[in-house]
TrEMBL record:
It comes from Rotaria sordida. The lineage of its organism: Eukaryota, Metazoa, Spiralia, Gnathifera, Rotifera. This is Flavin-containing monooxygenase. Its main location: membrane. The chain crosses the membrane at residues 418-445, 457-479, 499-518, 538-556, 576-600, 632-655, 661-684. GO terms for molecular function: flavin adenine dinucleotide binding; G protein-coupled receptor activity; hydrolase activity, acting on ester bonds; N,N-dimethylaniline monooxygenase activity; NADP binding. Belongs to the metallo-dependent hydrolases superfamily. TatD-type hydrolase family. Belongs to the FMO family. InterPro entries: FAD/NAD-bd_sf, Flavin_mOase-like, FMO-like, GPCR_Rhodpsn, GPCR_Rhodpsn_7TM, Metal_Hydrolase, TatD-like.
């Protein structure tokens, strides 16, 4: 490619930075790139996320670009704002809350820009005044102004990429009598501080995301009342008493506002949360996109190429939830286009494609909860009146990229051949554990000979295993369904199941510790009868259950338990973090280490007793309890051996990244260990086997006479 080719990129927000990154990546990979110039009106990266306390105009008398308000937090999970090849975890080096404040997003965007070395292409404090195209020269004529130097100049470019966004020009509807309103009228674009409205009655026109967020901020900062005027239907949320939804505003008469249902109220301020419009005053009329925000803007092939002039490219003009991911893909497509691989000829776009997405846009209904998969960057629950919008979005992003592109690869949901057999093994193992655990609990409950303290402790362990296995069974069934359908969807209970797995594992491990300590005290301190009492053991059981179910609450509330798409599980990500170290030591290492330590102390004690003059009954009892203790050690040994993969991956994660499907392998081994442990528990507990035989023999005794009588009668 000739370096004489020049490309103008308008804007250095997330979209513009994605485009610059695409060119810089091509350069680093050895491809020739054209001369790139990015014009940015503001003083730094960030675009819309570059907050300014000013409203109206800046220090250069230019319209304020940012619509950020001071206390804005994202209204979508951070994964919706994540670039495909640069995660929040990579930037910050630690887990983040799902809905971070605007300052976190700005820091992340700036880090993305610096990491990709794109500052070299950007001219800050430079505003575009006019862009036109000369058919004679086959060039764009671009007029720009250096705001600091107050100098205007014109340049020529072969391509122009518009990445100025579409959230800067407010859409302000007119209502009859609005000019008579004596109070403050503003659009959410100019909203900055909720404190400005303390003690006032505020009307918000609109009931979208911004309207909801601003209403709650006003409520928190002490307004007297907030009304949200909806156009079609109320959201139906359970609002605080000071916040309510009202029908569409129809007219204004001084401080009185009137609504469609005939009601009226007095208000002190009106805030329009009515969206934004595409506005490109710097573009010649035949280059200008004229459309309201929609899913698939008209006259843009693949939402990118201006079909009336294919050298004009728009970036990020559609209304996709996953804007950063989509602009990554679009930027890659544009880089291909201007690097000698055209993506469309003028007029190529067909009506069917545009109208298909237009109809989707009209029917789009978002569920109240959108769950995001970090690795794919795609929506997991996104419905269009019963029809999934996932596939059109997936197809759209895939169509922008070559099959071997890393972003394309990240969109692919892989299902390995060994997934399904592994899922079946885990389901069978956990189902077997659940069945045997229920059987043991029923035996202990029904047979009065099992109503002893040792059997109560065994029932405690069995109940913990039952909860753990039931939780794991639910995860395994969901994973199998997803693998069969090749989708990475968690359900709404995923995070809770992750919490429950940590809680039940803690209770299970400490239940074995209670059994071990009980056996040790019986032998070493036989006169401590209070410790052997049912009430005392119930107290310790309650303590372990309370601890088990309380400690993971912090992990769940802080967002530490997340959905791992590759491994199809909700869990704390492996790595050198406080939460992982706490789980590894307090839940596994400490109870198991104490069990082994107590076991060796008991072995040593029994050997000492054998060498001394000890009553026969006491020695026999000590050896019997030691044998029972050995059974506990066997159970723990099974857990440790089959937990080796999990332990290995935890240790590995402290220093490097574990294999891609590490948790699938590790958790499957743990699920199998549950089945082995419950079977061993049954086999190594004689009272359970005796009770089973009693039940079986009892049934046979009832059936045998009937059979004998029938045979005798037949023979007769």
């Amino acid at each position: 490619m000739s370096r004489s080719m020049r490309i103008a990129v308008c804007g250095a927000g997330p979209s513009g930075l994605s485009q610059l990154h695409a060119f810089e990546s091509a350069r680093k990979n050895g491809y020739p790139i054209p001369d790139i110039v990015c014009f940015e009106k503001q003083t730094d990266f960030g675009g819309q996320w570059n907050y300014s306390w000013r409203t109206g105009f800046d220090e250069y008398s230019e319209p304020i670009h940012s619509s950020m308000y001071h206390n804005l937090w994202t209204n979508l999970p951070k994964e919706c704002f994540e670039f495909v090849d640069y995660s929040f975890g990579e930037h910050f080096g630690q887990p983040l809350t799902s809905f971070p404040p605007r300052t976190v997003l700005l820091d992340y965007i700036r880090g993305y820009a610096e990491r990709n070395n794109v500052r070299q292409y950007i001219r800050f404090n430079t505003v575009i005044r006019w862009i036109s195209y000369s058919d004679e020269k086959q060039k764009f004529h671009v007029v720009v102004k250096d705001l600091r130097k107050d100098e205007t100049r014109s340049e020529e470019f072969d391509y122009v990429i518009i990445a100025t966004g579409h959230f800067s020009t407010p859409n302000v509807p007119y209502f009859d009598g609005i000019e008579t309103f004596p109070g403050r009228i503003l659009h959410s674009h100019d909203f900055r501080f909720a404190q400005d409205f303390i003690g006032q009655h505020v009307l918000i026109v609109g009931n979208g995301y911004s309207a909801e967020d601003i209403a709650l901020q006003l409520y928190k900062y002490g307004v007297k009342s907030v009304m949200l005027s909806y156009r079609t239907r109320p959201n139906g949320f359970k609002w605080p008493h000071e916040v309510k939804e009202v029908p569409l505003l129809v007219r204004i008469d001084k401080e009185n506002v009137y609504f469609r249902d005939g009601s009226s109220y007095k208000v002190n301020a009106i805030i329009f949360c009515t969206g934004y419009v595409h506005h490109f005053p710097f573009l010649d009329d035949n280059l200008r996109l004229k459309s309201t925000n929609c899913l698939y803007p008209p006259d843009l092939y693949k939402t990118i190429v201006w079909v009336h002039q294919p050298r004009l490219l728009y970036l990020g003009m559609q209304r996709f939830t996953l804007s950063f991911n989509v602009t990554n893909a679009q930027a890659c497509k544009k880089e291909n286009s201007v690097s000698g691989r055209p993506i469309v000829a003028a007029g190529e776009v067909g009506l069917d494609e545009s109208s298909r997405f237009s109809m989707l846009d009209q029917k789009l209904v978002l569920e109240h909860q959108i769950i995001i998969a970090r690795e794919t960057g795609l929506p997991l629950i996104l419905h269009c009146r019963g029809h999934s919008l996932f596939r059109p979005l997936f197809d759209y992003m895939s169509s922008l990229l070559p099959s071997n592109h890393p972003i394309q690869c990240s969109l692919t949901i892989n299902t390995e051949l060994w997934f399904i057999p592994l899922d079946i093994v885990t389901i069978l193992s956990t189902a077997l554990t659940v069945g045997v655990a229920i059987l043991i609990l029923l035996i202990i409950l029904i047979d009065k000979t099992c109503h002893t303290v040792p059997m109560m402790l065994i029932a405690n362990s069995c109940l913990a295993e039952l909860i753990c296995a039931s939780d794991s069974l639910g995860m395994s069934i969901l994973t199998l369904r997803n693998d069969l359908q090749q989708i990475p969807y968690p359900d709404s209970m995923c995070i809770f199941r992750g919490y429950l797995s940590y809680a039940s594992c803690a209770v299970m491990n400490y239940s074995f510790l209670l059994q071990a300590i009980y056996r040790y005290v019986i032998v070493v301190y036989p006169n401590y009868l209070i410790f052997q009492s049912t009430r005392f053991q119930l107290f310790f059981i309650c303590v372990t259950w309370t601890f088990g179910f309380v400690y993971p609450i912090g992990f769940m509330s802080n967002g530490n338990i997340t959905y791992d798409v590759d491994n199809q599980i909700c869990q704390i990500p492996l790595g050198l973090s406080f939460s992982m170290i706490f789980v590894a030591f307090c839940i596994y290492t400490i109870p198991i280490s104490i069990i082994i330590l107590v076991y060796f102390k008991l072995v040593r004690y029994v050997k000492t007793m054998s060498n001394l003059v000890t009553p026969v009954n006491t020695l026999i009892r000590a050896r019997r309890e030691l044998n029972m203790f050995r059974r506990i050690v066997i159970l723990v040994t099974i857990l440790v051996i089959l937990g080796i993969p999990y332990i290995t991956f935890i240790c590995m994660s402290f220093f490097t990244s574990p294999p891609k499907y590490h948790l699938r392998i590790a958790c499957s081994a743990v699920y199998v260990s549950l089945a082995c442990m419950i079977i061993a528990l049954f086999q190594l507990t004689p009272p359970l086997k005796i009770s089973i035989m009693k039940l079986i023999n009892g049934r046979l005794n009832k059936i045998t006479p009937t059979v004998a009588f029938t045979i005798g009668k037949t023979n007769a």
